[in-house]
Amino acid sequence: MSRIVTVAAAQLGAIQKDDSRQAVVRRMIDLMDEAKRQGADLVVYPELALTTFFPRWYHEDRAEADHWFEREMPNAATGSLFARAREHGMAMSFGFAEITPEGRHFNTSILVERDGTITGRYRKVHLPGHDEHDPERTHQHLEKRYFEPGDLGFPAWRMLGGVVGMCICNDRRWPETWRVLGLQGVELVVLGFNTPSVNSQKGAEGLEKRMFHHKLSLQAGAYQNSTWVVAVAKAGTEDGHHLMGGTCIVSPDGEIVAEIAHEDDGIVVHPCDLDATIFGKETIFDFKRHRRIEHYGPITAQAGVITPK
Amino acid sequence: MSRIVTVAAAQLGAIQKDDSRQAVVRRMIDLMDEAKRQGADLVVYPELALTTFFPRWYHEDRAEADHWFEREMPNAATGSLFARAREHGMAMSFGFAEITPEGRHFNTSILVERDGTITGRYRKVHLPGHDEHDPERTHQHLEKRYFEPGDLGFPAWRMLGGVVGMCICNDRRWPETWRVLGLQGVELVVLGFNTPSVNSQKGAEGLEKRMFHHKLSLQAGAYQNSTWVVAVAKAGTEDGHHLMGGTCIVSPDGEIVAEIAHEDDGIVVHPCDLDATIFGKETIFDFKRHRRIEHYGPITAQAGVITPK
């Protein structure tokens, strides 16, 4: 039986501070309709898909950012998105800021089945940036202020005939993310990102190098765990702050097989053959045969560096 | 105080089955002399630098391979190499097959100080290949037959004003290798490799993709741990079996800053500023601030894959 999952990576261009969720959802539905025309089984949207990247603004009172968060999902603003996905029989994934009933704040993404069931929920573990206003940065990146680190680990789910996992943005730079997913036999990892094109602590770094680091992390994660990767940007200039593009689909061999070169709303579609993950998983990355966990202790025993004497 | 370590990556061309260790050591000394002329503080040679890549041959009696192993280091064949390094005041690293006094077999590399002291010893943890003759492969890769997995973990040492670590060949494809070194604050990782240009289980893969995977692994390891990486090939055609080149030096930003494009004996030299590792280690890869070890459990708890239900 074929295990080809046709995936649409649905990039969103900029979302301005004043754009309503309803307006964004209309854009998402347009992309979904185009994905359907191109035969997609799954459409993947970015991190914080419903709003601008609000952690760039400092509020002394954190609760002033609460209006960017969703208290339930689906909700009034996204009901039409879920309805259209069900109508198309299309699975989907997107990210949003979540407030739990207990009042906890997470940077979250979900996996939704073709029938509208929310199968998977992931809460971003590796929050970049800082939690207090930092006058030494050219711009603020306050994810550590507005979100708690995810409390769900890196789960994977059986879906679309394979094993599917998620991560979000900065998680992609951490090999631990990929390995915990790989140890569940993941065959498709979907992730969204909002990545400023300027390093707030090293302006000279430049967009080209930041794009290189982005792709390097995706490609290494895909190759070293023999999995498809679908990475989707929110791109363009949001209220004067530029987010880089770089939406792409990476094969289990680590090759970029499809990408979007612009920074607007748009999709790129690729048929991902989940069976293409098997060769790597059974040979060079046959974990059971090759991994030597007796020598990996420090990875889970210590968070920070301990230098040799 | 400047912490620039000028490193020579000293690639060796093919070593044939009948080449003596003495002949190889003469070639290594020639490279060392050239490294000295170019101002090197450290010269790095490949994995199994003293012999051909013998794990390509199957012996029913494993002891028939013992003549490829060294029982002590330095020894009669390598004494002149150690003497020349001391004379130049140059540190060095090279790999060799090691038999311990207890008769254990390892794929080993060492770090030798400028004064000739052996500061560091590493035994390859991630042995690729197989341990019995495999008629389905186009060629044999019997590292699991002739070597035990290393028993020393991934240590790092204070040397040359910085923190230096080693790994060997296939170790570079495993993010665990890099992370255990990174958790010791490593600033320079040296490694040698003997990588067949043909995948014995997937001939169609091709040299170009194998070179891509090689560099991808080095670049991700360097970037994600903010360390210099010096990777040195034994290259060329050994008794009819082709080993790829790809000797290169990678910056803590993950960029290849120097490489060798041929497959013969030769060096490439680069001044590695260990202070260039600091920015990454203190910002995006400030492990203590960003790593969430409570979610990494499976990495050390299980070797193989456990798929979701």
UniProtKB/TrEMBL annotation, chains A, B:
Source domain of life: Bacteria
Domain named CN hydrolase is located at: 5-276
Pfam families reported for this sequence? CN_hydrolase (PF00795)
Coiled-coil positions: none
Q: Which GO terms describe its molecular function?
A: hydrolase activity, acting on carbon-nitrogen (but not peptide) bonds, in linear amides
Q: Which InterPro entries match?
A: Aliph_Amidase/BUP, C-N_Hydrolase, C-N_Hydrolase_sf
Q: What is this protein called?
A: N-carbamoyl-D-amino-acid hydrolase
Q: Which organism is it from?
A: Salinarimonas soli
